[in-house]
Design a protein that fits this description.
There is one protein chain. The protein is globular and about 35 Å long. It has a five-stranded antiparallel β-sheet with strand order 1-2-3-4-5. α2 packs parallel to α4. With 149 residues, it is α+β, with helices and mostly antiparallel strands.
């Protein structure tokens, strides 16, 4: 989670409040409650950062485990919602890969399929660190967009 640690340093310089880490058991229990499995990278992410009470300066927010339980009341077959952009203009989903990591997909809540943003959380945070605009304002659904989920 090298790229998440890079982002944490940036957020600290912004003066953003970051919540303390969560125990692995709490992460696994929360995901189980919403009908999903927490992959190793999800457990690692929350072992480093327990979420954010407010958006960062780019208007993105990593949800707390409590937020995940509240927001994931519907079927999670399309992945677990774990963060949002601009106070839920759209959200991001975690969909497990076969290697105990999770891919990140943008969900625009418009009945189209979710759009793949990154192949893993590590890739997601790396992209976010390099060009947050690409991650947050990236591919939007439409006639020329590619849907993967």
């Amino acid at each position: 989670m090298r790229n998440l640690r890079r982002m944490i340093e940036r957020w600290k310089t912004e003066g953003l409040v970051l919540l303390p880490p969560e125990p692995a058991a709490a992460v696994c229990e929360t995901f189980a409650k919403v009908g999903a499995k927490a992959t190793a990278d999800v457990v690692s992410m929350y072992a480093i950062l327990g979420g954010m009470p407010e958006m960062d300066k780019e208007y993105w927010r990593l949800w707390t485990l409590s937020d995940i339980q509240i927001e994931n009341t519907a079927d999670v077959a399309t992945g677990v919602l774990f963060s949002d952009y601009l106070i839920s203009c759209w959200s991001y989903r975690l969909i497990p890969n076969g290697d105990d990591t999770s891919a990140v997909f943008a969900d625009y809540f418009n009945d189209d399929k979710c759009i793949r943003v990154a192949g893993s959380l590590e890739e997601f945070f790396g992209m976010y660190a390099e060009d947050s605009y690409q991650v947050l304002e990236g591919p939007h659904p439409g006639p020329d967009s590619r849907s993967d989920a």
